[in-house]
């Protein structure tokens, strides 16, 4: 349990450790989860209490969260947050199978969407805000922003939701369809190899 009076020594915790009651005063923040009326730690790290006027948000900072950062050539999972005519802005969520404990900003430029016919790429027909994409990290050109590429068949949109909020199904390299309304939307679809096929080969 937390000792709020001991502010000199940071409180160290391990994954699954119960930290305090979860109520209107104590709220679970990043690095924690709520279960059965209590707040638990997701990570091994240090506990921080963020004081608001009427509540305290409990946050756990991982002691190893800085050890993994995106590097050129890494395969990353990212969420598209903004799309315009020249580029998409993204938030990186995972590097390979590792879920990031802090977000990194990524940018996917028009010329890095496809390997061919680069000048004919229309970003609005490739990505929409909220899409989850697989992308490759390119060498950095500006500080704190990672350049991304989807110019491989296996890269592109893997999860997209229709206007109804339903997960769409890929029907071609360039289209996904809402299974409820049957409305089709353009996307740069990733060629995801089913696990069974991958194992058989």
Kindly describe this structure.
The chain is an all-beta fold. Helix content is 3%, strand content 42%. It is built from one helix and 16 strands. It has one helix spanning 195-200; strands spanning 12-13, 18-21, 26-28, 32-35, 38-41, 45-51, 56-62, 75-83, 87-95, 98-109, 132-137, 145-149, 156-159, 169-170, 175-177, 184-186. The strands form four sheets. The chain has a five-stranded mixed β-barrel. A hairpin with a 6-residue loop joins strand 15 and strand 16. The model is unreliable at 195-201 (pLDDT under 50).
Produce the secondary structure layout.
Layout lengths: L11 E2 L4 E4 L4 E3 L3 E4 L2 E4 L3 E7 L4 E7 L12 E9 L3 E9 L2 E12 L22 E6 L7 E5 L6 E4 L9 E2 L4 E3 L6 E3 L8 H6 L1
Q: For the residues shown, what is the average pLDDT?
A: 85
The portion of residues forming beta strands comes to 35-45%
What is the number of E strands?
Answer: 16
Structural class by sheet pairing and helices? mainly beta
Helix and strand element order: EEEEEEEEEEEEEEEEH
Which value, in Å, is the CA radius of gyration? 21 Å
Distance between the termini: 50 Å
Estimated helix fraction: under 10%
Low-confidence stretches: 195-201
Across the major sheet, the strand order is 8-9-10-12-11
Number of helices: 1
Largest sheet: 5 strands, mixed, barrel
- Overall geometry: elongated
């Amino acid at each position: 349990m937390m000792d709020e009076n001991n502010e000199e020594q940071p409180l160290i915790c391990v994954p699954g450790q119960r930290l305090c009651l979860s109520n209107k005063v104590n709220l679970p923040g990043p690095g924690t989860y709520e279960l059965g009326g209590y707040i638990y730690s997701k990570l091994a790290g240090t506990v921080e209490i963020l004081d608001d006027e009427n509540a305290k948000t409990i946050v756990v900072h991982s002691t190893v969260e800085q050890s993994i950062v995106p590097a050129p050539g890494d395969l990353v999972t990212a969420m598209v947050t903004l799309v315009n005519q020249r580029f998409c802005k993204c938030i990186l969520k995972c590097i390979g199978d590792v879920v990031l404990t802090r977000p990194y900003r990524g940018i996917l430029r028009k010329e890095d969407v496809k390997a061919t016919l680069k000048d004919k790429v229309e970003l609005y027909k490739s990505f929409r805000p909220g899409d989850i994409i697989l992308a490759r990290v390119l060498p950095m050109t500006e500080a704190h922003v990672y350049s991304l590429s989807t110019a491989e068949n296996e890269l592109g949109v893997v999860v997209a939701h229709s206007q109804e909020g339903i997960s769409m199904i890929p029907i071609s390299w360039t289209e996904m369809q809402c299974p409820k309304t049957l409305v089709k939307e353009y996307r740069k679809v990733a060629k995801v190899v089913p696990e069974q096929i991958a194992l058989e080969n």
